[in-house]
């Protein structure tokens, strides 16, 4: 069977929004292959390129909106991530002035000089992503940005929030299911910013950025609403909370995981709170975006 | 060979401090067994006990100070964690008003009623720590609180900071080496608050609290100073940053890991920053103490 | 001369956005009177009303967008605030579950019961706003929400950010000039959420909310761009920074004030930094909105 | 009547602590004159001095501990501030690497170069504190650091917390009463770090630092305990909350002010919360110390 291939027909989107026209309609149950640009708009490919001159801000172009037939506010969209392929043989990262967790930014401004700009081009080959002999890392692809449209807002593609978005969380990877709230008719799904791999926190603000082909299948859970994005893997339930300061992201992630345990698995909320105190897991997705993203997890065997 | 056994001779300590007299002197290279009380002062053992009435505040009694012969300011104390045994057959956790990551506290006060108080007593047997049929978790012992004395301060045993302290980080476990800065002659080592297991963040403020016997060996690294606690496992280097808000703990942990990579492994700092962006790991130790503790990690194979 | 009166022709706006059609066009130099609804949509007027049942979320309806003829991205819009009249004789405040600085919210969730709901209706008369004999406060009207449209985002009317918005800062009052960045052609000006008075921080999330008639005059400063909203009074220059955590709002406000002193008054940035260390003023606008707003100030006599 | 003059007999203190011997005993009701060194240990006096080389860290030497006869844990110490004189004719401020609200610090580390070091020496004359023609500011003296000893901790003199400490709040000035909790017998009072003036936030980390003679009178309020420092002026009640992130300092300050209104003035807590929403005031004391200090205020006429 041939997959439906989705390529952005015109300009890429830089917001998650219901105010744009859908680029394609997809049926629940349908498997599609979505082509995405990298976070540099595919415009940075050489060590001598200067993102601060080439790009306007930090662009993060998105493919979408994709209209999901039958999706209504109050439903949940389940995105089964099936496969990620790079559509080129290199990945790019960079130190860019004003971006990152260890440098002054517009959100945390300082009277200090920014970090020197530097572009890192990695070769993708043989299951490795390689900058030089020492800096060579396994191919661990995932989606940095995956979202539905907010109810009335049009949010920057740099922002992670209740609708998903730029969560930069390595758990949004093939084999896992990402659950997103449906806020508008048709859901208006967006994705982009695929990574060949990333450390926890995405410290410099750029992972191993790639242009990619993402294969996934959409399912609708009718009449089931969620407050924050969720992920399910073979072994774990996860919630992603995005906020500043980071402790609020942690609170959101654990609180929503308690809600999930209570609603779907019959837990008393206080017992769920106690259980997570003893066997919950929490990792840092990003510590660089407009909101920080933390991931709370529970092994299904403890449910 | 018989181990030197260290039992607190009188009152336990509730601060990390050079202002107390050492309870014992230990030689570098010597292996000792240290007996510790649990965070409830071993005074909570039944579901009907009320910590808010039994205890004054959140006590966290420490065994120490232990004088390390030959330790001088500017050295590093390497604590090789060898073994942890529970000295009783149960662990205790609790929901206590004013403590936890999802409840108003004295640090984040609110005009809201606290969570209902509840004590959870877990049976330790057959490698499991069991509250009931559903809430039964593996035995994963580690030390919640491990510290040297600060240079001039006497800090509460509830506080994690540059000297170690109440980090509540599951990586301070047998098989790993904990590196702590020596700030005063003799280092003045303290430990306590041993856990039979804990989830990331220690959400309710109490892990599976046990009285314990901790076996460890002290080594001195003369003339080597560190700014924050470090941990080394068979496969990883780790730094624990403790601060509020949580993003500052993340910044500290990654920044000090960059310093470690630069000083001991010859990395250019910007390349280390890039490498951690792609393969660094970061988990949440605690999100409940006076400072939050985050752990930055790098797999040694990437050094 | 008769003022142009601006009444929202249809539905009020709940976002700041360029994606809506302007309701009216205004010329630079023109003085207009804008009618606004209160933050409760004028639907809460009795102590027995329950905002949590009457309202969907926290609505904050805005009048606009108002198209400013000739405004182009890169310009600054100067809004001369001339007068505020209440269009009714009462003001309303409320304690509403999930809103406020001392209660769990969706941004800082907790496993705790919310504060009891309560509506406070104040009588406006004789220059006072009066709930009862003890709680009677002077008439100190100002605009809670005043904004241009963001460049590509549609942001909730609850949000204060670089474009202005829901800053809830008592300095946006008659006699002062509010400077806002122009991000889109025509600026797309919005305002609403007028207050009969407010304490610093807007602790409970609602000030003395009124329906109002706001008289103001728009001027354009062509080719002059600013990063954050500014206010000028007879004696002071002010910048409003909005962010979480609150220290980032403080950094933004002082950093942008340093920029202002450097660009328009010839200060060396480090000397400006030193001067503000000695005579800068900083107050809390709001500690309840999606971002906190802090106001940095310098007395003009020190320029 | 001749005042009792208190000069530190030996080394100044760099912690607030009960572990030191009192330097003098004072009776309740007694008026004393306390001599203090400046935050640079009086060792920086010329523009060419380099604090980073002259000083070890950020010292903040304190005069004390002063034993208050009859003070017992659970009492409150009322310090009536009567007068401040500079004991020299100049004040000093500085930009020092690693200190300040707009520069990377050990608490908020970054891979960025620090701000250039610079010393500002101000002449004190004719009621003005003058660096040059433009940077000349009124004499507005207050105490930067004022504290009792914590119960069991010895906290750095750089730290503001429940016991007072390095709050850097311009309201601790002559004419006002500072209330501090008594945590240990004799209270162990400390003071130092007097300023000839300061902007809100103490942006660069140094105010107009002076050596000084502080005249004050101590009173005891027996059997009255407070949780956080309070200030009373002729017209206002104030509470200082110190925490990170800054919103927690704001929560503490307003929450404790609500407690004060309830306990001493008979307010219902929810009504107090409502009143502060409409007429509370909040300013930023410091945004640079180990904890940030915010001041919540209410005009007495609204009580």
TrEMBL record, chains A, B, C, D:
Listed Pfam families: FmdA_AmdA
SUPFAM superfamilies, per the entry: Acetamidase/Formamidase-like
InterPro entries: FmdA_AmdA
Region (Disordered): 43-64
Name of the molecule in the record: Acetamidase
Species of the source: Sporolactobacillus terrae
